[in-house]
Amino acid sequence: MKSVHSLRPRTNADLPVVASWVPNAEALYAFAGPWMTWPFLPEELDDLHRRPGATAWMLDTSDGEPVGHVQLTPVDDALRIGRLIVAPSVRGEGRGRRLLRLALDHAGARGVSRVQLGVLASNTPARRLYESLGFVADPETLDAPMMLMARDI
User: Fold this and answer.
1) DSSP letters of 38-86?
2) 125 Cβ partners below 8 Å, 6+ apart?
3) Distances (CA, A) of 153 to 65, 111, 114, 127
4) What does each C-alpha distance from 133 to 96, 98, 136 come to in angstroms?
5) Which of 37, 31, 58, 39 is closest to 120 using CA atoms?
6) What's the pLDDT tens digit per position in 131-153?
7) How many whole angstroms from its chain centre is CA 87?
């Protein structure tokens, strides 16, 4: 596994790369929820202007190869982690964990005390990752197709 640098801001040049990691409608729903429909254009990912205070970040290898993406959006008194995805070629290598830890560090540096995210209840690997990093499911969403999870920083 190549070493990984810290997060860097996402650029428009990254949009086609991130879009290439989403192969079908099911993957798009897991990545973006019901707010995007298949097929989609990479430019549709560039919607930060519609989400005040939102930022998007990329995780690169030491060689500058992008291997992960995450979006952070202020919601009430929390920061919402969304659109987290890892390149298919490096899944299972701990990149999602690294990306999520860096996102949590970034949230803490912004002075946020709580983070939240939504995850498909059927996405067991993602739920296990989030739980291992201290996220707890909102009891009201335990039986819902999309669970809300949160943790304090």
Assistant:
1) SS--GGGG--GGGSTT-EEEEEEBTTS-EEEEEEEEEETTEEEEEEEEE
2) none
3) 29, 9, 6, 18
4) 11, 11, 9
5) 31
6) 999 999 999 998 899 999 999 99
7) 12
How long a stretch of residues is the chain?
153
The letter for the amino acid at 92 is G
> The tokens of 30 are what?
């897991």
What CATH homologous superfamily does 8-152 map to?
Gcn5-related N-acetyltransferase (GNAT) (3.40.630.30)
DSSP state of 144: S
Q: How far apart are CA 153 and CA 53, in angstroms?
A: 19
Reported as a single tens digit per residue, the pLDDT across 17-46 is 999 999 999 999 999 988 899 999 999 999
Residue 27 phi/psi, 5-degree rounding, is -65, -35
Tokens read off for 7: 């997060």
115 secondary structure, DSSP code: E
Q: Which two tokens stand for residue 93?
A: 């290598």
